[in-house]
Amino acid sequence: MNALATQAPPSLPSAGVIWTRTLEAIRQEGLHYALTWLERMPPLEVRENALVLGVPDRFFRDWVDDHYRAMLETHLSRLEPSLGRVAYEVVAGPPPSANLPPAPTVKVNSARPSRLNARFTFDTYVVADSNQLPAAAAQAVAHRPGHNYNPLYIYGGTGLGKTHLLQAVGNHIWEKDPTQRVVYLSSEQFTNEYVESVREHRMTDFRRKFREECDVLLIDDIQFLGKREETQKEFFYTFETLFSLNKAIVLTSDMVPAEVPGMEDRLRSRFAMGLMADIREPSYETRVAILQKKAEQEGLNLPDPVAHFIARHVQKNVRELEGALVKLSAMHSLTRQPVTEEFAAQVLRDILPAQRAVDVEAIQREVARFYKLTVEALKEDRRHKALAHARQVAMYLSRKLTKSSFPEIASRFNKDHSTVISAVRKMEGLRETDPSVHRDLSELETKLGGM
Ligand SMILES: Nc1ncnc2c1ncn2[C@@H]1O[C@H](COP(=O)(O)OP(=O)(O)OP(=O)(O)O)[C@@H](O)[C@H]1O
């Protein structure tokens, strides 16, 4: 390598030395394809905080600048913190070798990138309190890949929508610009491809696929990389290369990086470098909203009370909610029976959690706790407004959740049965018209585990 003119400040090594070290670092990462371009640029000088490199023409300069500037500048500033930039000068010299690989033509991928499911889009994703941050961050990445939140690390429990969001990023980017090379796979698939490439001596192809022919890397379930030392090493260099080229990286996992067993520290710290966002379990309201949106997509008319019924009973994750809805929809189209709470209870009995037997005493205890009263106060003859409301709630729930008759319930509250009948009617009305009453009743029903 020829240093044509080198005027580094005294504290800096010469342009030639700096360039040789930079190329060496790139070589160690296995980026041989990049080197075939970079090695044709002589180091000219160090000017201010830039290393000036010679290029044969403007086309060459633009190609290198587009593809390798970010990576070069990362390496440079790592080797010489005072040097953060590269600059170019067109110099007369031997024409680039005939062996120089042609600038790859950018292919338009008319087919959706492999493994991406067209169903997983932002349009079909319900955003709510439990997933607001990851959803907003994923949208930001999809709009400006590589510039916003890089890497984005989405974590959370099973069936909560991590894969959906990850694929929505890929689908959005590809739909907007099919020249973008989106690579989506799980960390297990990454491991398998790596192992196969090593076995079949195809590492150059492997590296080209993940480092050079990839604009957006989406890896699902990154936690499985934890126990794969060799694959982790390869992934680290893949990550470094893409990151330095400002390529977008989005990862999902069921735990935070610090908790992934066997994950190297350098990877953990890189995962935490961008934005980490968790998806939590959906709240009651979110479960209802998801059910309603999914029913709409399925063309199923889902009455509100049935959506609330399912949301009360299926609490763990969205996958189970979806399973319940699919089953309900299938049975409805087979039997043509109206979709009511009773129909849902019957169709879903094997997937709903076993019902606890609820009796009037249990309801009185739960309602008293909910309104911070004593059970005795519920049974007293006082007409204080808050007390009367709590008592009516307890009577309504007793009628709804137990098989007790009006007189039986009345006797447990030391009242007559017409008081219970009017309390039940009043609550039925309020449940329809007053959202706060509706919320309280649903919460109490969930706590009581009743139908
Ligand atoms: N907020 C949401 N809006 C709409 N659908 C959702 C939402 N969250 C999850 N889903 C749906 O729930 C199902 C499970 O989601 P997904 O496969 O993305 O979960 P996951 O978190 O990746 O789970 P795992 O860790 O088990 O792979 C999918 O069909 C997905 O479409």
Overview in brief:
The protein has 451 residues and is an alpha/beta fold. Helix content is 53%, strand content 10%.
Give the terminus-to-terminus CA distance.
79 Å
What string gives the helices and strands in order? HHEEHEHEHEHHEHEHEHHHHHHHHHH
CATH class of the largest domain: Alpha Beta
**Which strand order does the major sheet show?**
5-6-7-4-8
How does the helix and strand content classify structurally?
alpha/beta
Instruction: State the helicity in percent bands.
Output: 40-55%
Tell me the CATH architecture of the largest domain.
3-Layer(aba) Sandwich
Give the overall shape. elongated
User: What is the arithmetic mean of pLDDT?
Assistant: 87
CATH superfamily descriptor of the largest domain: P-loop containing nucleotide triphosphate hydrolases
DSSP, total strands: 8
Task: Note the total helix count.
Answer: 19
Report strand %.
5-15%
Count of folded domains: 4
Q: Main beta sheet: strand number and arrangement?
A: 5 strands, parallel
- Small molecules in complex: adenosine-5'-triphosphate
Organism: Corallococcus soli
Main location: cytoplasm
Domain AAA+ ATPase: 148-280
Domain Chromosomal replication initiator DnaA C-terminal: 359-427
